[in-house]
UniProtKB/TrEMBL annotation:
Keywords: Hydrolase, Iron, Metal-binding, Protein biosynthesis. This is Peptide deformylase. The lineage of its organism: Bacteria, Bacillati, Bacillota, Erysipelotrichia, Erysipelotrichales. The active site is at 155. It is an enzyme of class 3 (hydrolase). Its cofactor is Fe(2+).
């Protein structure tokens, strides 16, 4: 499936507020191809030349609803200095989480959100996720913290029609939490 800035559903579309349905596993060929296309979009968006040639906005994650498919599928690709972390998950659920909050110092963004929504988005600093991992082709349970936890929570929120700016405190969008993990 062609995925680019023109085919990504924007937050003004009512579809973005709908709940996504669980996916049958093991994945059908169609669902597996779609999820791998989503992962490829995120990978390619990290390469400035490929991104410019294909009209890709930089991203670390994407959920199926963002391409008009109401299925619980997400793809993530995070490049660190010395490693690349990738996820291609279905039916991801947070099964436990820390009490401690975490947030990105500069706020969050989203492929589906065109307008700026400045503010801190409070999330759990550590989460345990249960999901079907399409890369390993098996059910997995794993724990992540910090930036990876924030990205996973952002994408899992899409399954319930929640957007990052729904989580910005209305009374003080740059509110701070002195006990939180702040990620620059």
């Amino acid at each position: 499936m062609l995925i680019n800035n023109q085919t990504i559903i924007k937050d003004s579309d009512p579809l973005m507020r709908k709940k996504s349905k669980p996916v049958t596993t093991p994945l059908s060929k169609e669902d597996e191809e779609l999820l791998m296309d989503m992962l490829q979009y995120v990978r390619d968006s990290h390469d400035p030349e490929i991104a410019a040639a294909n009209d890709l906005r930089p991203a670390v994650g994407i959920a199926a609803v963002q391409i008009g498919v109401l299925k619980q599928m997400l793809a993530i690709c995070i490049d660190y200095e010395d490693e690349r972390v990738e996820y291609a998950l279905c039916n991801a659920k947070i099964v436990s989480h820390s009490v401690q909050n975490a947030y990105l110092a500069q706020g969050e963004g989203c492929l589906s959100v065109v307008n700026e929504h400045p503010g801190h988005v409070f999330r759990h600093a550590r989460i345990t996720v249960s999901a079907y991992d399409a890369l390993q082709k098996q059910q997995v349970k794993f724990r992540v913290s910090g930036y990876e936890a924030i990205v996973l929570q952002h994408e899992i929120d899409h399954f319930s029609g929640t957007l990052f700016y729904d989580r910005i405190p209305a009374d003080d969008n740059w509110k701070e939490d002195p006990n939180a993990m702040v990620i620059d």
